[in-house]
Amino acid sequence: MPSLLLFVVLLSIITSLISTLGAPAINQLLWSLYTRLPTPLHNLVQKNAVLRREVFQLRTQLSGISAQDDFAKWAKIRRVLDKKNAELEASQTQLTTLRSAFDSRAGILRWFITTGLRMFIQFWFSKQPMFWLPQGAVPSYAEWVLSFPRAPRGSVSIQVWGFATGQMVSLLFAIIEQVYGSFFNAAAAPPVEEPMKMAAAPVTPAKEVKKGQ
Amino acid sequence: MSEVAHIDVDLDPLEPSLQPILDQKSLRWIFVGGKGGVGKTTTSCSLAIQLSKVRESVLLISTDPAHNLSDAFNQKFGKEARKVDGFDNLSAMEIDPTGSIQELLESGDANSAGNPLGGMMQDIAFSIPGVDEAMSFAEVLKQVKSLSYSVIVFDTAPTGHTLRFLQFPTVLEKALGKISQLSGRFGPMLNGILGAQGAPQIDEMMSKLESMREVIAEVSKQFKDAELTTFVCVCIAEFLSLYETERMIQELNSYHIDTHSIVVNQLLFPKKDNECPQCNARRKMQKKYLEQIEELYEDFNVVKCPLLVEEIRGPEKLKQFSEMLITPYQPPEGN
């Protein structure tokens, strides 16, 4: 089935993408999306941001006052700051626990989407031939390997197809990374120094000799 | 200065006197504390003297290993409460931590561990910081059980340990709670292992710990009750003392220990035509900080005590000084 072929390819691409981007980045992205939803968590995150801003403001205010000259004002601000600090810490710990719980759940979800789905598909369509090889294209033992677990002889099984696409995709990704990396390095590297003037001198007579010829 | 103008017509500044403490009959525990040299002992002795006029019996305890109560009253005090000369319901006690520990170790090790071990224990016990607080706390426990004085005034040591000592009940309570919980679970097993030899000792220890835990819980509750306990902060009108006082008040708030009185000592009231540059400069500085104190501690009783021309030692001078805690001091005309 053409759609199944494409599906397997897509799955391999997604899996490779996820592993390239890295788990933390994905988790961060999911977290920021999740906190945009209007849940109590959203309010918590907003409250945290507000508290942080307040603490920062109070701190700058405090550093602008001299404790010696305006002790009363300084002490009052300090009291408010201490209280806000305590609130901020409590809110932070709450958020951290929620975040780690979310991360573990996101990890499980990721696993289900990639490995879990792959295993399921491979199991469900294990007897399904992906596509039929032209007769006689490969020797019989190769035919057996290509149809390995349970697909009919002469076809390619989903496991083999998944393996092949997986290899292709990871190779592709490696190439893209290399190109990207070298491109970046070239852009970031300092420009090559001009060859020293002294080196230019001996070249000229050889050139002249060449020209003369 | 402030964005919103407060016009609190009916909220006059609280009276600058410790009369409210005298009036609050339910108070049982009064702590007097503040960082070194500000006049803690003088204030605590004066407060005790004033209290003895309006209470049935007053006990003054010093937790400072430096024996300052004896110096203040010109009389020797010890670890047993002794009546102060010239008063019939005021007693004073100076807890000597080294002596108490020695006693404890001697009584404990008499029956069990060998002598060499006992000697080492003594050295270790003396070097543990905070041991004086633990000893004074043990004294507090005894007082709670005996209920023989109507009010107890503590002259606390000038180090930062003071507040740790006040926190001691909570920490100890938690620790003892855990221990009794554990022993409840493992006690029978341990008894089985140790056999009849270990059983009675462990049970005895457990019951002692349990009763101690109850007393400590009671003490902890009493310290957090504003009707029963209060803390008087003593300071001078200088930046560091003020900073320390503010820190102490915030810490007391975090432990839920009530504090609503401040005594500012050693204030100068020089005459207008005074020519001493040091006095005038100091007066200016003190005035600045006094204003800050008044602004910051609006809901406190702030008592202002002057710097006297002579040392305050001996019961007579202390009695004179104690009047200033109750009736606000009026400086002579000219400042």
From TrEMBL, chain A:
Residues 1-4 are lumenal. Residues 1-20 form the signal peptide. One of its GO terms (biological process) is tail-anchored membrane protein insertion into ER membrane. One of its GO terms (molecular function) is protein-membrane adaptor activity. It holds the Pfam family CHD5. InterPro entries: Get1 (IPR028945), Get1_fungi (IPR027538), Helix_hairpin_bin_sf (IPR029012). Residues 173-213 are cytoplasmic. Keywords: Endoplasmic reticulum, Membrane, Signal, Transmembrane, Transmembrane helix, Transport. It is a multi-pass membrane protein. It is found in: Endoplasmic reticulum membrane. GO terms for cellular component: endoplasmic reticulum membrane; GET complex. Coiled coil: none annotated. Gene3D superfamilies: Helix hairpin bin. PANTHER family: GUIDED ENTRY OF TAIL-ANCHORED PROTEINS FACTOR 1 (PTHR42650:SF1), TAIL-ANCHORED PROTEIN INSERTION RECEPTOR WRB (PTHR42650). Belongs to the WRB/GET1 family. HAMAP family: Get1. This is Protein get1. The gene is GET1.
Automatic annotation (TrEMBL), chain B:
One of its GO terms (biological process) is tail-anchored membrane protein insertion into ER membrane. Zn(2+) binds at C276, C279. Pfam families: ArsA_ATPase. It is found in: Cytoplasm; Endoplasmic reticulum. The active site is at D64. NCBIfam families: GET3_arsA_TRC40 (TIGR00345). This is Anion-transporting ATPase.
